[in-house]
Write a structure and sequence with these properties.
The complex is a heterodimer of chains A (366) and B (218). Chain A is an alpha+beta fold and 366 residues long. Helices cover 65% and strands 11% of the residues of chain A. Chain A has two domains: 179 residues, no CATH class; 145 residues, Heat Shock Protein 90. The radius of gyration of chain A is 45 Å and the shape is rod-shaped. Chain B has one domain: Response regulator (Rossmann fold). In chain B, helix 3 links the parallel strand 3 and strand 4. In chain B, helix 7 packs across helix 8. The chains are: A alpha+beta (366), B alpha/beta (218).
Chain lengths: 366, 218
């Protein structure tokens, strides 16, 4: 019914240990003395019953004390032994001694049944009822009881049954409580994992974004500290580069049917705002470009455009075999170092007053 | 006498500002080209002075959404030298215009110099390939595209990328006239495929005459 390690098992294992101690204690502490001192019709029968019950205690200890569930076969044999021992011990009792001190087995067997069938409530109730019926039958068979006797027996039976049922109810309540607690702990653990994941993701996003911001943050810091002079042409060039990078970053996250051209258009837009006359030409139908490759293709465009002075020619060409993005400008000043590219080949060259950059991506042949 | 030798053109465009602007560009260019007729309907190229103009400058859209491919085909079938002058840079339409026999396809963002050069070249029965058209040819992925040599492809791409023949010549270590020769050669290859048109036949004949292609190449 329940697999190993489940909360019900833990509760039952603990309660079984307690019940085992109870049976052992009752057997040795409360039952041995009447067995030795009381008078029985067939003393050997009572002793046999006692030994059988002691055997059940001894055998079950191997599983119970190690907190393992007992095998069904053992449970069945144990239950049968307990019921039979109860019947034998009770039948050995002389008339009028039923449910009295000499009838030590009545309550004891009930504890044995509890020990053996704690997690099988229906069987337990059936076994308890059988035991009760046998005991009452023997009691009635032994002679005509008077009303006082019946009252006394009723109290003993009721008292015993109440205690056993209370144990069953407690076991179930404990199991239920433990189940809830375990579920709550598991839910809390899941929540904690999700929280950790979310934190990690957020950290990743932050790092990514900071990485994508590129030169913007240090440049802003330098401007704020007065280290960079806005009148300096070099500072202005860095501002142009940072602005183009930012614009590309925004464009990267847009939904567009042609993301490559969309990003390049965004870069062109920034250059035009700076007063650069840009002619943009796109040729060849749209092809799918992976985001990482797109980033490598547009990176050099950002750098080349931000270095342009008055004019720039930007072209995107998609042929059968490759995607080629080129920028020809009248750039001046030191060339921005080409960023390391894994999939894209970047070529730079100066021709007279013109500077050319071309990024080529060879499409994997499909 | 000089008047008789002057090149003539007819402009078909639905925007008066474009007609006037192009007329001005052509009149003040080198060499000056006289616009003999202009209008928003292709009729001006068939009747009156427009019927005998050397070059037809045709706006493909003429205020409609569907490009005037039928008008272009009728003009080229009649042997008219047509320069398509379009608002849109659409590779497929540009290639289709070449297929129908247009000698050039220009987008309106390309400046006056390209238009003048295209008109002068067309008047001589030759093809002119502006950078945008070079891009369309380089990006042509159709199955029946002609096979271009590696050098021809490089010329097309570099011309598309830089818009400067001097730049291309410098990059590839050839003379600017060799750049032109390559471009013409490519156009002849394109003219030789697909449907026949008098202008395309004339283009090929011209190329053979100039020694640009050998008869064996055909």
């Amino acid at each position: 019914m329940t697999g190993p390690g489940l909360p019900d098992d833990n509760v039952h294992a603990t309660m079984r240990v307690a019940l085992w101690c109870v049976t052992a204690l009752l057997l040795v502490g409360l039952s041995l003395r009447p067995l030795l001192t009381q008078h029985y019709r067939q003393h050997w029968l009572a002793v046999t019953a006692f030994v059988a019950l002691a055997g059940v205690t001894a055998v079950s200890s191997g599983w119970v004390l190690r907190r393992r569930p007992m095998p069904p076969a053992l449970t069945a044999v144990g239950t049968a032994t307990a019921l039979a021992a109860g019947y034998c011990a009770t039948s050995a009792v002389g008339a009028g001694a039923h449910f009295g001190a000499a009838d030590w087995s009545f309550g004891l067997v009930e504890w044995y049944l509890l020990l053996l069938l704690l997690d099988r409530v229906a069987l337990l109730l059936a076994a308890l009822a059988t035991h009760l019926a046998l005991s009452v039958a023997l009691f009635l068979a032994a002679g005509q009881p008077d009303r006082v006797d019946i009252g006394a027996v009723g109290i003993v039976v009721l008292g015993g049954a109440t205690v056993q049922l209370a144990v069953v109810v407690i076991a179930r309540a404990l199991a239920r409580g433990t189940r809830r607690t375990t579920a709550a702990i598991a839910a809390r653990d899941r929540m904690r994992t999700r929280l950790l994941l979310a934190e990690g993701w957020e950290r990743g996003q932050r790092n990514d974004f900071a990485g994508q911001l590129g030169l913007t943050l240090p440049l802003l810091a330098e401007l704020a500290d007065g280290l960079a002079d806005p009148r300096d042409p070099d500072t202005r060039r860095r501002c142009a580069l940072a602005a183009t990078q930012l614009r590309r970053l925004f464009a990267e996250n847009d939904e567009s049917p042609d993301p490559l051209v969309h990003e390049i258009t965004a870069c062109v837009d920034i250059a035009e705002r700076r007063g650069v006359v840009v002619s943009l030409a796109v040729s060849g139908s749209t092809v799918a470009v992976p985001a990482a490759v797109r980033h490598e293709l547009t990176g050099p465009v950002v750098a080349a455009l931000s270095a342009a002075r008055d004019r720039a020619r930007v072209s995107v060409l998609r042929t059968v075999a490759e995607v080629r993005v080129a920028v020809v400008t009248d750039a001046e000043g030191a060339r921005t170092a080409p960023p390391g590219a894994a999939d894209v080949e970047v070529e730079y060259g100066s021709y007279g007053r013109d500077r050319r950059m071309e990024a080529r991506w060879r499409r994997p042949s499909s | 006498m000089a008047q008789a030798e002057q090149l003539t053109a007819v402009i078909v465009d639905d925007h008066p500002a474009v007609r006037d602007g192009v007329t001005h560009w052509l009149a003040t260019g080198t060499p000056p080209i006289r616009v003999v007729a202009a209008g928003d309907d292709v009729r001006v190229a068939w009747v009156g002075d427009g019927a005998t103009a050397d070059v037809v400058i045709l706006d493909l859209h003429l205020g409609r959404t569907i490009p005037a491919m039928g008008e272009l085909r009728r003009l080229t079938q009649a042997g008219r030298r047509v320069v398509v002058y379009s608002m849109r840079a659409d590779d497929a339409i540009a290639l289709q215009c070449l297929e129908l026999g247009a000698l050039s396809y220009l987008t309106k963002v390309e400046g006056s110099q390209h238009l003048i050069e295209a008109t002068v070249t067309a008047a001589a029965g030759r093809a002119y390939t502006p950078p945008s058209l070079a891009g369309a040819l380089a990006g042509d992925r159709s199955s029946n595209r002609p096979a271009l040599s590696a050098r021809e492809t490089e010329v097309l791409v570099e011309w598309f990328q830089s818009e400067s023949k001097d730049f291309v010549a410098q990059r590839l270590g050839i003379s600017p006239s060799t750049v032109n020769t390559h471009l013409e050669h490519i156009r002849v290859k394109y003219a030789m495929r697909g449907r026949q048109a008098p202008t395309k036949a004339a283009l090929v004949a011209r190329a053979i005459q100039d020694g640009l292609v050998q008869l064996d190449d055909l």
